[in-house]
TrEMBL record, chains A, B:
Its EC number is 2.1.1.131. It comes from Thermosulfuriphilus ammonigenes. It holds the Pfam family TP_methylase. CDD domains: Precorrin_3B_C17_MT. One of its GO terms (molecular function) is precorrin-3B C17-methyltransferase activity. This is Precorrin-3B C(17)-methyltransferase. The gene is cobJ. It is an enzyme of class 2 (transferase). One of its GO terms (biological process) is methylation. PANTHER family: COBALT-FACTOR III C(17)-METHYLTRANSFERASE-RELATED.
Amino acid sequence: MAGKIYVVGLGPGSEMEMTCEAQEALRRAEVIVGYHTYLRLIPGYLKGKEVFGSGMRQEIVRCRRALELAASGRTVAVVSSGDPGVYGMAGLVLELIAQQGPEVEVEVVAGVPALSFCAARLGAPLMHDFAVISLSDLLTPWELILRRIEAAAAADFVIVIYNPRSSKRQRHLLEAREQILRHRSPQTPVGLVRAAGRPAEEVSICTLEGLEPEQVDMQTTLIVGNSQTFVWKGRMITPRGYRLPS
Amino acid sequence: MAGKIYVVGLGPGSEMEMTCEAQEALRRAEVIVGYHTYLRLIPGYLKGKEVFGSGMRQEIVRCRRALELAASGRTVAVVSSGDPGVYGMAGLVLELIAQQGPEVEVEVVAGVPALSFCAARLGAPLMHDFAVISLSDLLTPWELILRRIEAAAAADFVIVIYNPRSSKRQRHLLEAREQILRHRSPQTPVGLVRAAGRPAEEVSICTLEGLEPEQVDMQTTLIVGNSQTFVWKGRMITPRGYRLPS
């Protein structure tokens, strides 16, 4: 009898930010599979379970292991930080099943994505149409990423940037900033949230022209305001468009 | 002494999909403020509390009431379905405070947004860069919305469409579809999730050319695939770009 895979979103990290549905899926699982760093966020759920952890860029290894376990009848939870449906593990699990065909049931349990959590910390920057773009060119040509940045900037989307920088990619954020500056004021607010929801969390707001790549690492999410976004007492606010009676 | 406002995301609706943080904020609140329909989702949290409910398009009335209550020292929860930070109540609360200036603490408690929840129901459509666009032109000129649709389509974003239709707006979805079809194959998968997470939930997948406005109402969220998105056994999958060993 084939088993089941839950692909579970942990949200930013603490148990308080998980949904009850996600907690329930972790309790039901016999085996928990995930990136080491994320498994460390949920020690209480690992007790008495089989655990398969692996390192960065081992996503395919982890997913294959989950598939084998589920195909042999086990109930498996594959964990992902944030929401597994936003650049997360949900796609890889389904892609591998589509390719290899084991009869395995899959349920994606959504979590609070980084874009939501970071927006909450910054104020209310996502009150209007927004684009979500990853600057990682490991799996996507840089030209396509830059074209999307340009399109989003030109059409006045708020822009959420995932994976803004790594040690190998120093120039990307600068190029993205240049592209956005062609269409948006240098004074446009940019919110930065680092290590969201974790003890080392840092939240700051700068301007587009003042944005320095040194402020940013792989754990940072950026939100670039649209032409209407303003900052008020440390909060970044994109107006929804209501006419407010004064 | 000034009070506090929690702007709380309920997620799609059931308690199981709320975060513990959101539940805790509702427990701490002395007064709960919200749209009638959302208050009905959380009867257990209303017991023994003061409740201020109002109807559709009464957002400003609700927010002002919350501000008055908090300014007089009460702890207030303003509830929003999904994530209050995505087209939700977080912005209006902060905009009103910025305009009127009462000394009130505000904490936004993120919830699982409709985009995440609907993506989970459909499979894994948001594995690559995406744009989120509301078709409601109550507060935004239709020309700007259409320009964003066009930009997102041309740059091959997955497109999440909120508020696709109301009784007064029959043509908008057709115009948006026309615009997307100029850049994307008629066979592009489109996922539709109606009344996500509620008893009347309906999930379906069609093609861009087969999309009929009659399938869609104000409670529906649409996800239009990018050029790589495919459907496999009723799941909508946008590849992340991994080269999968076969």
